[in-house]
């Protein structure tokens, strides 16, 4: 998904205009026609169905389709019965309709909210991407269509492969697959991260990928597994520019029991012939009496003369932001096992929950720029019942959205401020060299 960004400072009116342009009645009806979800005028309108889904999944705990029907009737002032409502939900085009809406939201509503501090080392990167996957269990009866990895615990499950943009503090690319499928092929390609930095967990360790990224002049920090046995070409301690060589490690195969417990910065040769990979491995030790192997390996091609091992470790901590995103989705957007045996409905509920979660985070980011203060996306997400219905009704009516946005942002200014902004700068996500665009 290519993301279109707008760098102008928003106002209440500009936020509502942009939101109406992206998911207003006309645009949503167009997507419904193109996907074949709704071809002619009905009691169940495209905007009515969309808003009922995202308002239900983004506001309260929901496990039943009847929860969405009740929201639909309330927001649309209707008395629709369950069967005709369910007939719309089970359409083959329904999940594609919602997926297209989500794609439009990601492409047109996300915008930069963070940047590198002036003269920070992070300024050299055109962008910083985080990539990971998260598993979601489905009803067991869907195991044939969506087979899970853990057949006894979750016979049916899906995997969401997510790329997150650090500047925009939001997901920019999502792929849904069966949980049994491999992960590597759904991440950014080496061409995507030219002049950018990619941060990934240990499931994405790959010599071939590392070589390809280097060839494309991209950068990476990827956590490594403990079972690799590369040859150590050079070893230095973690004292930065004052670092000294650790000669006793040179020429040996990497193994946790030969490593100094203060950590070490290595150059390694991994593999043989044209399959070999020459790279850097920053090794950190975390004391743990229960685990003698308590080392963390970080593969990177960041130059040692510019980025010390400790700075590599500090930047890698940004990966935690994608875990917080997953937590936010699962806690406040009902991304869980929904009670349906229809594969189309199960998939549609996932897309609807993600639309709701993305809209809430986008509203929080827009409000930050209007107010000039740092907001907590988590607090905005969990407080949706206090503002989301008003926005939903305005989208259905096609009027009153500016006032609804105004009310929501005023609510955020009092109830959704970040609790410890100064701590964020010292030890949190901003400590690596980031700051808010809207907050000076």
Question: Could you explain how this protein is built, in words?
Answer:
The structure is a single chain. By secondary structure, this protein is of the alpha+beta class. The chain has a domain at 12-111 and 332-434. Helices cover 38% and strands 16% of the residues. It is built from 14 helices and eleven strands. The strands form two sheets. The chain has a nine-stranded mixed β-sheet with strand order 4-3-2-5-6-10-9-8-7. Helix 3 packs antiparallel against helix 12 (388-397). It starts with 11 loop residues before the first helix and ends with a strand. Mean pLDDT is 91; it is low at 1-7.
Structural class: alpha+beta
> What does the overall shape look like?
globular
| Strand order, sheet with most strands | 4-3-2-5-6-10-9-8-7
The major pleated sheet works out as: 9 strands, mixed
Q: Could you report the average pLDDT, rounded to the nearest whole number?
A: 91
Strand share of the residues? 15-25%
Through-space gap between termini: 31 Å
Order of helices and strands: HHHHHHEEEEEHEEEEEHHHHHHHE
Helix content: 25-40%
Number of strands: 11
Task: Report the radius of gyration as a whole number of Å.
Answer: 24 Å
Given the structure, what is the number of helices? 14
Stretches where pLDDT is under 50 for at least 5 consecutive residues are 1-7
């Amino acid at each position: 998904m290519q993301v279109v960004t707008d760098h102008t400072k928003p106002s209440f009116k500009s936020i509502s205009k942009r939101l109406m342009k992206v998911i207003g009645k006309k645009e949503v009806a167009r997507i419904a026609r193109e996907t074949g979800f709704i071809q002619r005028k009905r009691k169940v309108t495209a905007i009515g169905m969309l808003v009922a889904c995202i308002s239900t999944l983004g506001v309260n705990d929901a496990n039943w389709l009847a929860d969405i029907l009740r929201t639909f009737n309330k927001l649309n002032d209707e008395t629709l019965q369950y069967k005709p409502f369910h007939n719309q939900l089970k359409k083959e085009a329904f999940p594609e309709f919602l997926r297209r809406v989500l794609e439009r939201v990601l492409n047109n509503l996300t915008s930069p909210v963070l940047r590198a501090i002036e003269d920070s080392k992070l300024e050299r990167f055109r962008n910083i991407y985080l990539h990971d996957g998260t598993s979601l269990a489905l009803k067991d009866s869907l195991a044939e269509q969506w087979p899970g990895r853990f057949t006894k615990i979750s016979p049916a499950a899906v995997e969401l492969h997510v790329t997150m943009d650090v500047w925009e503090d939001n997901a920019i690319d999502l792929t849904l697959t069966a949980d049994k499928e491999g992960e590597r092929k759904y991440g950014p390609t080496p061409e995507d991260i030219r002049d950018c930095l990619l941060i990934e967990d240990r499931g994405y360790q790959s010599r071939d990928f590392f070589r390809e990224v280097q060839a494309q002049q991209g950068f990476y920090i990827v956590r490594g597994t403990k079972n690799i046995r590369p040859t150590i070409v050079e070893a230095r301690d973690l004292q930065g520019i004052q670092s000294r060589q650790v000669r006793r490690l040179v020429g040996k195969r990497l193994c946790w029991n030969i490593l100094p417990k203060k950590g070490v910065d290595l150059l390694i040769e991994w593999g043989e012939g044209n399959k070999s990979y020459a790279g850097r491995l920053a090794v950190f030790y975390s004391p743990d009496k229960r685990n003698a192997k308590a080392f963390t390996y970080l593969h990177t091609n960041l130059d040692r003369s510019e980025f010390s091992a400790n700075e590599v470790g500090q930047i890698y901590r940004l990966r935690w932001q994608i875990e917080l995103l997953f937590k936010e989705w699962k806690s406040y957007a009902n991304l869980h096992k929904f009670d349906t045996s229809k594969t189309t409905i199960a998939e549609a509920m996932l897309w609807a929950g993600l639309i709701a979660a993305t809209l809430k985070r986008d509203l929080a980011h827009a409000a930050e720029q209007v107010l000039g203060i740092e907001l907590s996306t988590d607090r905005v997400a969990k407080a949706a019942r206090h503002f989301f219905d008003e926005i939903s009704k305005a989208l259905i009516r096609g009027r009153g959205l500016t006032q609804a946005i105004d009310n929501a942002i005023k609510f955020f200014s009092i109830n959704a401020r970040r609790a410890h902004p100064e701590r964020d700068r010292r030890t949190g996500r901003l400590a690596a060299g980031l700051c808010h665009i809207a907050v000076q």
